[in-house]
Amino acid sequence: MAPEREIIRDRLPAGATASSRPRTRLDQPLPPRRRLLPEWDPEAFGRLSERIARFIGTGRFLVWMTVVIIVWIAWNIFLPRPWRFDEYPFIFLTLVLSLQASYAAPLILLAQNRQDDRDRVNLEQDRAQNERSIADTEYLTREIAALRIGLGEVATRDWIRSELEDLMRELEVRQDGHRERDAVPAVPAVPAERPPGRDADDL
Q1: Cβ-contact 49, 105 below 8 angstroms
Q2: Who's near 54: CB < 8 A, 6+ residues apart?
Q3: According to the model, what pLDDT value does residue 7 have?
Q4: What is the distance between the alpha carbons of residues 179 and 173, in angstroms, rounded to a whole number?
């Protein structure tokens, strides 16, 4: 074994030790990699989309959009021609409304998907809670049934009272029987008759 170790040491280049290898620190996070595409926080973007969708679905948004459209149309009809920026067909207004609708629809769908995910998680939690409640109810039912069976074999106060009353009656009956027996006079014992044909001295 010693010659083989010497051969391995000879093969290693000079200075190639364990300390020269690049070490990775496990107690520090890796530096972020640079990417060409922009990065964003999906959670923050989802919260923003929910806020926008929630605002779009309110009456305040409808009132403000109606006011803006009325002012837009009145501006381009009643003001002098040099101040108008969108003539009668209102092509720019149509473009703005189309752009707003094209952005509003995906934002609303994204908010709806997030709400569906939350509803799914809540449903799973409710289902798990219901399963735990059912298991606890079944356990309590079994425990109550076991207690009822156990209480059926335990001596209750009424049962002990009835047993004591029966014993008292039995003792009274026995005591009355002894009194009657003591009151009757003693009868002298009658000798047993001897069978005929035998003498007194016969054994």
Answers
A1: no
A2: 111
A3: 47
A4: 10
Predicted pLDDT at 63 = 93
* Amino acid symbol at 126: D
Neighbouring residues of 194: CB distance < 8 A, sequence distance ≥ 6? 200
The two three-digit tokens of residue 172, written as one number? 């009274």
Interacting residues of 85 by C-beta distance below 8 A, sequence separation 6+ = 76, 92
Q: How far apart are the C-alpha atoms of 113 and 107, rounded to whole Å?
A: 10
Structure tokens at 42: 């999906």
Around Cβ 144, how many Cβ atoms within 10 Å?
10
Sign of the dihedral defined by the CA atoms of residues 150, 154, 157, 163, in that order: positive
Q: Chunked in runs of 10, what are the mean pLDDT values of the chain (203 residues)? A: 48 53 75 73 81 88 92 89 86 92 88 89 94 94 88 75 88 79 57 54 49
Phi, then psi, of 72 in degrees rounded to 5:
-60, -50
66's CB contacts (< 8 A; 6+ apart) are none
pLDDT at 129 (0 to 100): 94
Q: What is the structure's pLDDT at 6? A: 47
Is the Cβ–Cβ distance between 85 and 92 less than 8 Å?
yes
